[in-house]
Design a protein that fits this description.
heterodimer; A: alpha+beta; Dna Ligase, domain 1; D-amino Acid Aminotransferase, Chain A, domain 1; B: mainly beta; OB fold (Dihydrolipoamide Acetyltransferase, E2P); eight-stranded antiparallel sheet; four-stranded antiparallel sheet; elongated
């Protein structure tokens, strides 16, 4: 393996490129016309445009991605998460083209990609599953009848789904029809497959997932749990490792179940077993397996001191896993928040724009995985997640304190984000106490988070900015351009002259 | 030049006047509130501000049209130019505007339809998620300006409701 094509964009493409560089591998980026100057393109050794902005015509176009690999001499493909990462057809096409697929065997993707087939395999392997109806078909009447058998409340879920897309919660029979229609439309748009199924909605379970890793030599290990209970519309917002809900005994039990699930499909590479945990009883249920690297993989990396992408590169080249199970013991605590371009004061509506100022925090135990840098435009065509901020600490409180302080220090202008909401969640007493559930945001932030009233300091600063001409785009103000305009009025400010003039 | 921003229920006029030396300013925050400050500009484009009490803080400001972004004390504020004449004026808003750039997925009403507060009028898709545009009040649809499949920009009026009789003006 010499050069890896990364079939993705945003923060994950940047993160994978970093791991490749660290391993001495060259990288090829692919990009749509909306991403010509995106960070993931800038950090790559080679880059190929694969089409117009809509993902279906660019990032999801298998032929164009393979052609890009050929054109740049890439001999391996890393799919990241989302897009083509769980597309078995793509994995097979990569192998047919004589390239190394940095992911699980296509048969394992297929087995777990059909949520229905996966469920049957889990039952056979002795892994507990959530009650549901997976074989009702797509006919509205049949789905209605199935809904009666599953019972309310229930979830309508996309068979090809993930990330909360094509998923709807239904509390009464009257809501079922519109929910199915909306879920099918969203699933069709997101995955090209409109099929949905029904599953019992567990009230306020914990969302726990177990990281597993297999190699081609028959070894499968688990790297403990991630708690992903803080979600909004089934989109994860905060994740952590380990979880306050697990003790070493429960961790070992869930880890064994996860390894059994992975072995049932002869899994190789990084994968995640998602489980619902009823923390009053210690009962847990298999939800699904994600046959890819997860968005939230960094919390596992920090808690276990590993590099999962580096391990993916090694395993794809036929090497053995770098860690035996007995060496995998968590140390300290890691918490991740996802920065979304969305407005918590307006029902979390997505926002776009240019990141006029984007100054992420740095400090001990702080990691930023970002797909954007200052000045970048946030395009409307893709997922609104801009970056992830992860804090590690000696214990949960230490990590939480570091994360809260880092969020306060993060300056973002030009695009409305959920940054203040993230800080409020991390500081919430219920979060501090570890009382997490998937109902957390609905319960504690039913109306999102109102924009703060401007402080006196903010008003003073704004009046001064107007008087000094500071902060205009391209004027060397808030935009961060280095050189001051000698004609600008603030040049008269005493301190500036003292700083040694233009640099 | 002065700028007007909304603070709670009030519109506050902001201005700053240069004082005896280039780094000294007197800032006015509306009627009767003023503060003498010393300002230094940091190399990264922020302002280091010292009030007469000696209290100091650093603020980063970006201006975008009439909107200002101000980060100070660990909080970022987005300050829009206030509508002179108070908040009430814009609020009775009969038009329904696109909240973000996207595509009209479904149009569920036609001109002349009676609609109820909270009723979904239109579904817009943006960033791979669907968003329901709901009626802010009971009323009658006057005009539907887009068809399914049309692209919309933020702030564009999607639908107008006929002016109401005034009993529901809030």
């Amino acid at each position: 393996m010499r050069q890896v094509l990364i079939a993705n964009r945003g923060e994950i493409a940047v993160r994978v490129a970093r791991a490749c560089k660290a391993a001495g591998l060259r990288t090829t980026a692919v990009y749509s016309e909306a991403d010509r100057t995106a960070l993931h393109v800038r950090v790559a050794d080679d880059a190929v445009c694969v089409g117009p902005p809509p993902a279906r015509e660019s990032y999801l176009d298998i032929e164009k991605v393979l052609a890009a690999a050929k054109a740049t001499g890439a001999d391996a493909i890393h799919p990241g998460y989302g897009f083509l990462s769980e597309n078995a057809e793509f994995a097979e096409a990569v192998a047919r083209a004589g390239l190394t697929w940095i992911g699980p065997p296509p048969a394992a993707i297929t087995a777990m990609g059909s949520k229905i087939g996966a469920r049957e395999k889990m039952v056979a392997a002795g892994v507990p599953v959530v009650p549901g109806e997976h074989t009702a078909g797509q006919d509205p009447a049949a789905l209605r009848a199935a809904a009666e058998r599953v019972g309310y409340p229930l979830l309508v879920k996309a068979s090809a789904g993930g990330g909360g897309k094509g998923m709807r919660a239904v509390h009464t029979p009257a809501e079922l029809g519109p929910a199915i229609e909306a879920a099918q439309r969203e699933a069709k748009a997101a995955f090209g497959d409109a099929s949905v199924y029904l599953e019992r909605l567990l009230e306020n379970p914990r969302h726990i997932e177990i990281q597993v890793f297999g190699d081609a030599h028959g070894q499968v290990v688990h790297l403990g749990e991630r708690e992903c209970s803080i979600q909004r519309r089934h989109q994860k917002v905060v994740e952590e490792a380990p979880s306050v809900a697990l003790d070493p005994a429960l961790r070992a039990r869930m880890g064994e179940a996860a390894i059994a699930a992975a072995r049932a499909v002869d899994y190789v590479g990084a994968g995640t077993i998602e489980l619902m945990l009823d923390d009053r009883t210690g009962d847990f249920y298999f939800l699904e397996m994600n046959t890819r690297l997860q968005v939230e993989h960094p919390v596992t990396e920090l808690a276990y001191g590993v590099d999962l992408v580096d391990a993916q590169l090694r395993v794809a080249q036929g090497q053995k896993l770098p860690w035996p199970q007995e060496r995998l013991v968590p140390r300290g605590w890691a918490i991740e928040v996802r920065l979304y371009a969305e407005d918590p004061a307006k029902g979390f509506l997505p926002s776009t724009g240019a990141l006029r100022r984007f100054r992420p925090p740095v400090g001990p135990g702080i990691r930023l995985d970002s797909g954007y840098v200052e000045g970048d435009e946030v395009p409307v065509h893709y997922d609104p997640m801009l970056a992830k901020l992860i804090a590690w600490g000696e214990d949960r409180e230490h990590a939480r304190g570091r994360l809260a302080a880092a969020l306060d220090a993060w300056e973002i202008h030009g695009v409305t984000t959920n940054l203040p909401f993230l800080a409020a969640v991390v500081r919430h007493p219920a979060f501090a106490s570890g009382a997490l559930s998937t109902g957390f945001i609905g319960e504690h932030f039913p109306d999102g988070l109102a924009a703060p009233e401007p402080s006196r300091e903010a008003l003073i600063a704004l009046a001064l900015a107007d008087a000094l001409g500071v902060g205009k785009a391209g004027a060397g103000g808030g935009g961060g351009a280095a050189g001051p305009d000698p004609a600008a009025p603030w040049h008269a400010v005493g301190a500036w002259r003292g700083a040694g003039g233009p640099r | 030049m002065s700028r007007h921003v909304q603070v709670g229920d009030e519109v506050v006029a902001l201005s700053a006047r240069r004082g005896a030396s280039p780094e000294r300013f007197t800032v006015r925050l509306g009627e009767g509130d003023s503060e003498s400050v010393i300002v230094h500009r940091t190399p990264d484009g922020s302002l280091m501000i010292t009030e007469s009490s000696g209290r100091s803080y650093c603020a980063a400001i970006s201006l975008e049209g009439t909107t200002a972004w101000v980060s100070v004390g660990g909080v970022t504020h987005r300050l829009a130019e206030a509508q002179l004449g108070g908040r009430g004026g814009g609020h009775a808003d009969h038009g329904l505007e696109a909240p973000m750039p996207g595509k009209v997925l479904r149009v569920l009403v036609a001109p002349g339809d009676a609609v109820e507060r909270g009723q979904t009028l239109l579904i817009v898709e943006a960033m791979k998620m669907e968003h329901a545009i709901k009626s802010p009040r009971d009323g009658r649809v006057e005009d539907v300006r887009f068809a399914e499949g049309d692209l919309v920009s933020p702030g564009e009026a999607l639908i107008t409701l006929a002016p109401d009789d005034g009993e529901d003006a809030a």
